[in-house]
Amino acid sequence: MTDAQRSILVVAHAHRHETVEAAERVMSALRGAGARPVLAPDDRQELGELIEDLDGVATLGVDVEVGEVELAIVLGGDGTILRAAELVREGTAPVLGINMGHVGFLAEIERDDMDDAVRRVIDRDYRVEERLALGVRVKDASDTVVYETWALNEATVEKASRERMLEVVIEIDGRPLSTFGCDGVVVSTPTGSTAYNFSAGGPVIWPTVEAISVVPLSAHALFAKPLVVGPEHAVAIELLQRNPGTGVLWCDGRRSLDLPSGARVVVSRSERPVRLARLHPSAFTDRLVRKFRLPVEGWRGPSALTAAIPTVGERSE
Asked: Which conformational region is residue 220 in: left (phi greater than 0), alpha (psi within -120 to 50 degrees), or beta?
């Protein structure tokens, strides 16, 4: 593939002035380097009303197929990054997040480093990190699969109405674990452990740990604590047919499905991971401290002897 044929998807939150300006700069830099910027149809429509010059910018699914996209540059917060992961799901393009939002936990860099990030994309100076994703299947009361999707952060089963709780059975690998009434259940990946899972009281899981977290929401039960299972295990949530109310499945807060009583949601590791582009090696601990603004005053640090011992990550390199 020649550089003239390189296709870089640009995904931007078009409702913020600074993000529109950043998208214009990124696309201009890509064109100047001989690459082809690509926009999703919705983004092209929205940005086309705000940016005068879209000459040389291709449209995803019209001019360029997802399998032709080399990388996706995302300008926005975590929600925009999740949207980008959805856009490139059927291809192999990694996603590079440039934080234009607030926390931006999935983003690789902040907006001040945007120009350098584009240069490194052009130079192919980045590494790709694969993140565990979830495969989600919904079965009806007759055990027929009626819906299939995926999630990078989490799949949640929640009650559909405020006044009625859900009666659920949690199952691991085909064996029932516990029945209780609740507001819902969050099933999360390590990537999503700092999102809804974290807010619901679930554990933060390092990205290098392959695991699935299960967190009941406001459960009426003695045994309803967060669980962490290995990625080879399947988690199922059954809505009991005696349920007074109905539920709803949400995946990454983007895709939803109404669940009747008797529905069964099966969550397991997806065969296809999500690929994130990384520019800088950094400790996940540092990301937690920076993004959550955790207090570390008074930290003395390791002794000279301890500091000389390489970490697990350093040994693997």
From this structure: beta
* Spacing of C-alpha 298 from chain mean position: 34
Q: Structural domains in the chain?
A: 3-131 (3.40.50.10330), 134-269 (2.60.200.30)
The single-letter code of the amino acid at 190 is: P
Q: Give the pLDDT of residue 103.
A: 66
Q: What are phi and psi of 119, to 5 degrees?
A: -60, -40
> Model's pTM, two decimal places?
0.89
pLDDT, tens only, 23-48: 999 999 999 999 999 999 999 999 88
Element (H, E) at 250: strand 247-251
User: Of how many residues is the chain composed?
Assistant: 317
Total Cβ atoms within 10 A of residue 226:
15
- Burial of 193 from C-beta contacts in 10 A (0-12 / 13-18 / 19+): buried
CA atoms of 158 and 177, how far apart (whole Å): 19
- Which residues form the catalytic set? 78
